[in-house]
Write a structure and sequence with these properties.
By secondary structure, the chain is of the alpha+beta class. It has one helix and two strands, in the order αββ. It has one helix at 3-20; strands at 49-51, 57-59. The protein has a two-stranded antiparallel ribbon with strand order 1-2. It is elongated and about 65 Å long.
Length: 60
Amino acid sequence: MSYSIKLFIAILIIISFVCCSEDKNTPDPIPAGWERSTSPTGYKSLTDIEFLNKDFGVIC
């Protein structure tokens, strides 16, 4: 294969990785009626969430 074809393939691979990568700096969209909250105790790894009805839920 010639150098220009290898370069073209490498550029296509790089572009595909850049275009398909996930942007970690953009927060997830929040559905209407919800608000983002932080843990009151400062824990960063909350593991489970359960809702008993539309008004009451528990997060642990």
